């Protein structure tokens, strides 16, 4: 839904919701140098294995133009993804000699919620003969993730993949299966960034930017499980400065030469218990390339940092 509040202010609101249930197929096992030679509709798990999904995405984008050169943009987005497997026949090892597919009853459910708020100011101005496109912004985000996995790995439910007999083993109640993994992860992130696109000449443009990120991530393991025998909680905090520079030179109209250098900040993983805070890393990216085309080349640096 779009609303032109005034000739300088626009508001766009969006909503998406999905609710579906579908069958689960874990694929066929490898055999020799390929895949087992069975009919295409053959499955290695059970025919009634299924997963239920619910997805919600709602948010808005607001833009206000102060004048032709300066504008303020604000956006918020909330998304939620819930999934729930019924008790399924989880496939593991395959015995090529006997054609037996090892399977175990298991189930998993989870929820992932994301909140994201972003505000930035974009302006164009000149310092003498040099033109600038300046971007300054702040973004906040929060992620709540919960996962619970249960399964009985002590009681195999084998299947002859070449001559399968399905539903030979009664499915247990999900509540009777032991918990093999369960955790709750909360991440809070703040980012502040500034970027300047500088047009020195019609055929020479520079880009320079800097971003600061600080992240707090908390993991709670409520009970002892197979993969996490010690319940508890752990919090890690990380921050980093990420630079970005780029240059584009257009010696002739159909030829552009460009190079860029940037760093991005990432946590070591979603479960800090299994990594240390020092593992939080900076990933470096260097890109040099050229582009030749017979068409008119139009260069646009993205305004989003």
Largest sheet: 13 strands, antiparallel
Provide the succession of SSEs.
EEEEEEEEEEEEEEE
Indicate the percent of residues in helices.
Answer: under 10%
- Rg from Cα: 27 Å
Count of beta strands? 15
Structural class computed from helices and strand pairing: mainly beta
The pLDDT mean sits at 87
The first-to-last residue Cα distance is 26 Å
Primary descriptors:
single chain, 305 residues, mainly beta, 13-stranded antiparallel beta sheet, 0% helix, 66% strand
Please describe what this structure looks like.
The chain has 305 residues and is an all-beta fold. It has a domain at 2-177. Helix content is 0%, strand content 66%. The chain has no helices and 15 strands. Strands 1, 2, 5, 6, 7, 8, 9, 10, 11, 12, 13, 14 and 15 form a 13-stranded antiparallel sheet that branches. The protein is elongated and about 80 Å long. It starts with a strand and ends in a 13-residue tail after the last strand. Mean pLDDT is 87; it is low at 270-305.
Summarize the structure.
With 305 residues, the protein is an all-beta fold. It is 0% helix and 66% strand.
List the SSEs and their pairings.
Elements lengths: L1 E3 L4 E15 L6 E2 L2 E2 L14 E16 L4 E16 L2 E8 L4 E28 L2 E22 L7 E2 L18 E23 L2 E18 L10 E21 L2 E12 L14 E12 L13
Antiparallel strand pairs: 1-2, 2-5, 3-4, 5-6, 6-8, 7-8, 8-9, 8-10, 9-11, 11-12, 12-13, 13-14, 14-15
